[in-house]
Amino acid sequence: MNSEAALALLQNTYGYDAFRGQQSLAIESALNGHDSLILMPTGGGKSLCYQIPAQLREGTGIVISPLIALMQDQVTALRELGVSAAYLNSSQTLDEQKAITRQFAAGELQMLYIAPERLLKPKTLAYLSSQPISLIAVDEAHCVSQWGHDFRQDYLGLSVLKEHFPQAPLMALTATADQRTQQEIEQRLNLQSPVRFNASFDRPNIRYHVSVRQDARKQLIKFLAQHKNEAGIVYCLSRKKVESTAEWLVSRGVNALPYHAGLPASLRETHQQRFLREDDVVMVATIAFGMGIDKPDVRFVFHMDLPKSLEAYYQETGRAGRDGAASEAHMVYGLQDVVRLNQMLTESPMSEQQKQVERHKLNALLGWCEITHCRRQGLLNYFEEEAPTFCGNCDICLSPPKTREATTEAQMFLSAVYRTGQRFGTAHIVDVLRGLDTEKVKQHGHEQLSTYGIGKHLSAAHWQSIARQLIVQGYLSNDFERFGALTLTENSRALLRSEKTFHYREQLAEPQQRKKSTSRNGVSEADRALWDALRDCRKQLANEHDLAPYMIFHDATLMQMMEERPRDIRAMGFIHGVGASKLDKYGETFLEVIAKFADQP
């Protein structure tokens, strides 16, 4: 086995000229029989790292994947490339499953996708062990770690893989894992002297922006106005909010669909297929939607609520811009998100140690929301990766926040927390400072306090921002067992005595809109007709073959066709993403479309 064979397969089957980043090294490692741990960002090309050696080594490659949708999409895409691949999961009839096992036994499959719970059945392990296995790839490997952000109990049983398949190289792949999680993946999967391949976590094509929640729906609809006729995902924390938001967007003329685990499986499948196959669907979803989504042209991800951690945020925003084109990740948040997430943690059955880890992750995310330097640098530093201080593609670099000395205001807030007995949440403290005549204020006699009304010259939003930043800077903490009651920390004493000063970051600005060029989506008006014709052709072929359009060709491939306008089948073969199988199936059809515009400049 050698790198030349891998490169030839990449060019002839997949239609790509060269490997990216560490792909070739990871493939060579597998070809040589070594175990590996591969960390690559979403859209970084992880699947090629196991698909190519699985085709070049003797036997069938086993791919362990947690989601049915992801298996089905990848197998469909592989078959379009002429690769013999199949999957086994609960969506199939017994006869379909038997047909797949017969193919496997006959040595006719290059790759077999399977869920961990099915793989671990004694009967499955027995028949898989009866045939040569080229390699085993564990996708979404962070699911094996109890310290990761998406732990799954079924993954723990994968420790037996080495016992049953000692000769097969084992590849663990994920987009997010800190050092602790990486170590646990290696231990739990019993990887033998694994080679680590850590690609950069940076997704330079994604613009990051964070706003304080004011009117979330108004903020969302303003954002969507900049992304008309584009596909995107809107994440919400609760199922109820998913449904109400989707319904509201539809009433505003947006092609929106809801998705969460509580919907009937058939409806979830219908909505997911529409998202994959239509160009302008906005999916409003909980985190139940996303891991199995391989759609390359998602142009934005909008968070209506704070995620649980920076790992979760990175994973979710990474679903935008897998094709490398400009995309946006926008989040609105408020302190109530933190209280709600911590209440969920308190009520969860996980161990106290695990809860502490999750709280630490949540605090890190909150701190990242309030930083005053490059947001991309802060994100990459969290994953222990060095980054420049200016990326030029985040809200802070594009519109640096203003800060000012606000020690007196901080002291007012801390004093109000102290004088009310450290028993109340932010909303009540703000009411006291602003001198509001509420039932709660009267019930506790807080209108008699010296701090009552001393902050009435400032808005409620301003005081809420002061509270957030006091928490982030370590002067206040939330007592989550008492519904988010604010308490003073040791650090607050020095601030109250004016031994320290407090610098306040002004309210987060609204996003600087992406500058509009004279072209739309990189397509000039002169090329618009050809571009639309190529997309219409792709859509028609996708419908005829019951495929998602991107499974025919990605936008980047159509873009190159539009720019180079190949005139014969040989020239079409040089277009990026046009492999031998697709050239044979679709080459002439697209050449006919291009020929109609041959006389145009």
Automatic annotation (TrEMBL):
GO biological process, one term: SOS response
Gene Ontology cellular-component annotations: bacterial nucleoid; cytoplasm; replisome
GO terms for MF: 3'-5' DNA helicase activity; ATP binding; DNA binding; four-way junction helicase activity; hydrolase activity; metal ion binding
Keywords for the protein's UniProt record, in alphabetical order: ATP-binding, DNA damage, DNA recombination, DNA repair, DNA-binding, Helicase, Hydrolase, Isomerase, Metal-binding, Nucleotide-binding, Zinc
Domain called HRDC: residue spans: 524-601
Domain Helicase C-terminal: 216-365
A Pfam family assignment: RecQ_Zn_bind
Catalytic activity from the UniProt record: Couples ATP hydrolysis with the unwinding of duplex DNA by translocating in the 3'-5' direction
CDD domains in the cross-refs: DEXHc_RecQ, SF2_C_RecQ
Broad class of enzyme this protein falls into: isomerase
Matches recorded under SMART domains: DEXDc, HELICc, HRDC, RQC
All residue ranges annotated as the Helicase ATP-binding domain in the record: 27-195
Superkingdom of the organism of origin: Bacteria
Cofactor(s) the protein needs: Zn(2+); Mg(2+)
InterPro entries, per the entry: DEAD/DEAH_box_helicase_dom, DNA_helicase_ATP-dep_RecQ, DNA_helicase_ATP-dep_RecQ_bac, Helicase_ATP-bd, Helicase_C-like, HRDC-like_sf, HRDC_dom, HRDC_dom_sf
EC number(s) recorded for this UniProt protein: 5.6.2.4
Family indicated by similarity: Belongs to the helicase family. RecQ subfamily.
Name the UniProt record assigns to this protein: DNA helicase RecQ
Species lineage: Bacteria, Pseudomonadati, Pseudomonadota, Gammaproteobacteria, Cellvibrionales
